[in-house]
Amino acid sequence: MNNIPFITVEGPIGVGKTSLAKLISDHFQYHLLKEIVEENPFLGKFYENIDEWSFQTEMFFLCNRYKQLNDIQSDFLDKNIPVVADYHILKNLIFAKRTLQEKELSKYIRIYDVLTDGLPAPNIIIYLHASLDTLMERIQKRDRDIEKNISPLYLEQLSADYQEVMEKYQKQYPNVQVLSFNGDALDFVKNKKDLDTIIDKIKQTLTLGAYNHESTQEI
């Protein structure tokens, strides 16, 4: 576990992870790590045909996130420079378990376990969640070509997967503080008071010395 703040923002597609990570980075002057999304050459095909393109899509994300986190460790955390990222690599398993067939999933998990062994882990996770209507509305507003074929059912299932994984994660890693925020109730992009609510909670967690609470805190 790093003593230097390493914050990750997680949640389903369209919930506002990158926007919030950038706002946190700007406020605290932490280095911002953004995941590669649109650069994935398989992603558009994935949303058109999940069964056909899921393994290629997930392997591309896994390899890129592995490289990014390796670099973050050596270039920033080892030099006592705090980091905020708009993803946690555990999302790879969330997506893979939702989309891969059993044979491919078994192979994927073996590769995942090898690559993630020894990677830097966050000490604070910001978990954003929202209703399906909110997620679909935000996806439509940002109007990415690769996301035009996202199925509402897939997104709803993904949201449920995230909720389950985050609850299990907090029990498995009690030294990691998970701060949970309702994206239906908070608009941290347009409403500064909502952003201040999140920032204040992060400040409290940092002041407490991070990362030894026993339960997810919901706002």
From TrEMBL:
Keyword hit for rRNA processing = no
GO CC, any one term: cytoplasm
* Family from the record: Belongs to the DCK/DGK family.
Top-rank lineage group of the source organism: Bacteria
Active-site residues from the entry = 86
UniProt keywords (A-Z) are: ATP-binding, Kinase, Nucleotide-binding, Transferase
* Organism from which the protein derives: Niallia taxi
Residue ranges occupied by any Deoxynucleoside kinase domain in the UniProt entry: 7-205
Q: Does the keyword Transferase apply?
A: yes
The record's PANTHER family line, in alphabetical order, gives: DEOXYGUANOSINE KINASE, DEOXYNUCLEOSIDE KINASE
Kindly provide the name given to this protein in its UniProt entry. Answer: Deoxynucleoside kinase
Query: What are the binding positions for ATP in this chain?
Result: 11-19, 138-142, 186-188
For this protein, the record's Gene3D superfamilies field holds:
P-loop containing nucleotide triphosphate hydrolases
Q: Which GO terms describe its molecular function?
A: ATP binding; deoxynucleoside kinase activity
* Family matches, as Pfam families: dNK (PF01712)
